[in-house]
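REQUEST ID: PR-0412
SUBMITTED BY: lab tech R.K.
PRIORITY: routine
TASK: structure prediction, single protein chain
INPUT:
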Amino acid sequence: MPKPSASSVHSLSRQLTEAYVALSKAEVVWQSSLIQSLRHITQTCANVMGVERASVWQTSIDMTYMECLCQYREETNSFEQGAIIEAGSFPRYFAALAFERVINASDAVNDPRTREFTEPYLNPHNIKSMLDGTLRGEGQIKGVLCLEQVGQRRLWTDDEQIFVGSVADLVSQVLLFNSFRDRETRFRALFESSGDAVFVLRGPSIIECNPAALRMFRAQREQLIGVKPSDLSPETQPDGVSSASKAADFVTRALSGENQFFEWTHRRFDNTLFAAEVSLTSVILDGVNCIMGSVRDVSDRKQAEDALIQSQRQLAYRTSHDSLTELPNRDSLHQNAARLLAQAKKQGKQLAVILLDLNRFKDVNDTLGHRIGDFILQQVARRLSVLEQDGNLEVFRLGGDEFALLQSGVSRLDTVIKRVDQIVNALSKPLEVEGMSLEMGASVGVALYPVHGDNSHALLRCADVAMYQAKTHGERYQIYDTHMDANSTRRLTILADLGVAIRENQLQLHYQPRIDIETGACNGCEALLRWQHPEQGMVPPGDFIPLAEMTEIIHPLSLWVIRAALQQIRCWLDRGIEISVAVNLSARNLIDTRCPEQIKALLVEFNVPNHLLEIEITESALITDPERALQVLQSFHELGLHLAIDDFGTGYSSMSYLKRLPIQTLKVDRSFVKDMLTDEADAVIVRSTIGLAHSFGLYVVAEGVEDEETLQALRNLQCEQAQGYHISRPLPAQDFDLWYEARTKAPPEPDFII
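STATUS: complete
OUTPUT:
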């Protein structure tokens, strides 16, 4: 399904934040009846989120049912209420409310929390996706804010989930506020006007008060009679103006016939302060012009408003800062860079974008675990933040072990180099972690405005290219130069030719068989891309795939590979051969939320069972945007695709992260397998990886099997499958067919008998 571009996602995030702020401040939300408040909230949510239905449900006290307080339907622009859902009929949904702040059911029909609604509700109304925010208050579940997408499934973004959770908190506050307001109304009706403190002033002094005033000010009657309103106030009001002066002004206006209504801070006789709403009206008593004043304690409402303000601030902070290091995040970098670029242009100065990542972080993270890794990132953030004290420097965390810095007011390159030296030196000092001294170091790339770009995205990309060059060549830092870039003449030519190759079918797939180690049977293979250039001959994959992964051309290239693989699977199926094919996807594919729908369409086009397509991803591909990658992988899983992690042990994964991935297979990297018989360290890695995979219920494929002894050792370790040159090199489709036919007809070899 189509997804918004990065710029539109940023616009959506801003739109949601603005909508939430407007809701929290809307007069209709706080000053109208509850039903009017909820109608405004549900209609606003439906319009802003672009959904057909939005509703608010309230739970019964005993949590046995929920009642619809208000449902807005966009198709009829109407509101409904009163529907009931019983907890006994939907136990999983009610159970989910107790543990989840937001229920993200993109596939509502199949989501275990919401599929109980399929027959009675989802299918009749063609509802495909739900996004529900739990209402909580006074330590209990109060209900749910429900948004429903009709017609097609929708993958809810992180910003949309945050918005729904925040609006659910707002609705909880509205329910609480209306509860307080209803209680006040009933109290006044029962005791007439005794709910509010009522005073009568003649001249400057109080001559009468009601029992509520005594309670409110914690006073005896004789203490109140004869005092001035300013005597019941602190010396100054929150705006810093004298209470006596302001009170005299309000009284004067009221005596002139202008009814006064204002907020005021009062002081009780025990010296505690409270917020109040005060109304003053001129009345004639015994022929004398007096003031009738009422005071309402609005402390509860103020607390609710303060809570909303705090929630708003927290929402703004969460969307602009990294939760682990408390540094501003990528979005903040682009926002701040826009301001600094405008400033640099006006002043005729340069702006430096400095990008870095830690050299040994992945190794340390894999070896010592994410807890230590997180601690290291926090320490790095602190060291970088210290440099901000020198001025003209702002530090950001972009994700993983990647940090960025903006240095403004640059007039000479040597000042940037001096700053980079400070950064590298700060990070080269050992980190003391639980008795260990760890040396990390960093690779740094630098890009400058206006030389290398005129916007933050272009500058960040150039800095990334420079950083990669520094890391590749083992240098402390690199200043960006066009010869490094994928857009340089030589590389641009390769990319242009690759575009032609995709369109003119110069590409082909070779297939490397994968066998069951116990039986020797082949039931799968890996598709490997080859490029037969009309002038250069066979172009090695290493010459063009890394370049493609740096640009948008990776998307059509990946789709070509998947299309070709599915076409081959279809050919085999037509001959009665069922073989799964694994294809590799890059990091860019994993953060492209359109990819699952594109693959789904190709599966339908070639009429291939979903389970015969296997998606392989590398550990490093998960680093760019782990949460979005997880979302895309979950979509693959829901399609029924087989998922595998390739080159396991060389990158980012940990046990805690593996638990979240919907994968079925781990592929042990060939660098460990090929020397496992002669290198004890490699043998330990292979053995522990197989054990780890089995503990998670995963299958294991060993890559790089080049001799029978290695195959036998893997069999003894209960590794399920293997591939490598000992079994077969990658083959064109016609040669693979001959290999497969010969292997299928041949009797089992003794080596494959346990």
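NOTES: The chain has four domains: 6-187, 192-300, 321-485, 516-528+561-746.
REVIEWED BY: pending
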